[in-house]
Amino acid sequence: MFDMTNTVLQCGRYVLDLSEPLVMGIVNVTPDSFSDGGCFQRVDLAVQHAESLLMAGAAILDIGGESTRPRAAYVSPQEEMDRVLPVLEGLQDCGVPLSLDTRRTEVMREALRLGLVDLINDVSALEDEGAAKLLSPYACAICLMHKKGEPDNMQLSPQYQDVLSEVSTYLAARVRWCLDAGIAPQRLLIDPGFGFGKSLSHNLTLLAGLTHVQDRVQVPLLVGLSRKSMLGEITGEDVPAERLGASVAAALESVRRGAKIVRVHDVKATTQALRILAALADPAV
């Protein structure tokens, strides 16, 4: 694999310094996302929510128009575009990179044509036909995520011989595929895909082994654990929005194990916790 020990990410209009962890705020423009589906379907409400995340310390905003939770309903590419493009337009001058959470080449193409996105966050790791070819000439960053199966079946009975090895091998192969397609290495991120075709045991093994994934693939890690069901399985909390403490703890542990970006719903609490972690790392400051 190539060496990505540098801490700079080319992210569309921005160059991000990853020497300190960054917080990505989640903006779900969907009726059925597992935690806040339906809360921000109106463009004005989604933009207001995004602005509140910026005030709370978000360094990146991730806008998504298709829920990829287990057993999520199908959304057409046109419906997805109708949801996300007006929100991206409303946030163009917000001062931070805008990430588009999509797995469809058609949606990527239109957002890029309009100059609306700085990062493509793809749960399918650019497996949709034509995605890598489309993205190659642009400056946007790309997050490649591992998942096993599709949203309607991925949590039925996920099986691995060695989850750390299999996830790392897949991500390394997708990174190599992007490089072969002409995508510069400084544009790439990887996400091990917590909750995407993984049991609680698989998720915990991945979290404990994040350093292994980083060492194997040599690409900066983005981790999304916020409010996920694995946290509810551990804490017994059934309501996603009530998993704040668990989500912050998971974000801190991810950073401690090498994550450069954490994707979260609760930006203010996560940002405060990361400041404490940083202060403890350099108590002389």
Report on this structure.
The protein is 39% helix and 16% strand. With 285 residues, the chain is an alpha/beta fold. The protein has one domain: Dihydropteroate synthase-like (TIM Barrel, Alpha-Beta Barrel), CATH 3.20.20. Strand 7, helix 5 (163-180) and strand 8 (188-191) form a beta-alpha-beta unit. Helix 1 (43-56) crosses helix 2, helix 1 runs parallel beside helix 10 (267-281) and helix 5 packs parallel to helix 7 (210-217). The model has no long low-confidence stretch (mean pLDDT 91).
List the helices and strands and how they pair.
Blueprint: E1 8-11, E2 14-17, E3 22-28, H1 43-56, E4 60-64, H2 77-90, E5 98-101, H3 105-113, E6 119-122, H4 131-135, E7 141-145, H5 163-180, E8 188-191, H6 200-208, H7 210-217, E9 221-223, H8 229-235, H9 244-256, E10 259-264, H10 267-281
Parallel strand pairs: 3-4, 3-10, 4-5, 5-6, 6-7, 7-8, 9-10
Antiparallel strand pairs: 1-2
Between the first and last Cα atoms, what is the distance in angstroms?
36 Å
Mean pLDDT: 91
pLDDT under 50 segments (min length 5)? none
Which term fits the overall shape? globular
Oligomer: single chain
Under CATH, the topology can be stated as: TIM Barrel
The biggest beta sheet reads: 8 strands, parallel
- Domain module tally: 1
Q: By CATH's scheme, which homologous superfamily applies? A: Dihydropteroate synthase-like
Give the fraction of residues assigned to helices.
Answer: 25-40%
Taken as a percent bin, the fraction of beta residues is 15-25%
Q: How would you write the strand order of the largest sheet?
A: 8-7-6-5-4-3-10-9
Counting helices, strands and paired strands, the structural category is: alpha/beta
Question: Would you identify the CATH architecture?
Answer: Alpha-Beta Barrel
Query: What series of H and E elements makes up the topology?
Result: EEEHEHEHEHEHEHHEHHEH
Based on DSSP secondary structure assignment, what is the total number of beta strands? 10
Number of helices: 10
The radius of gyration is 17 Å
- CATH first level: Alpha Beta
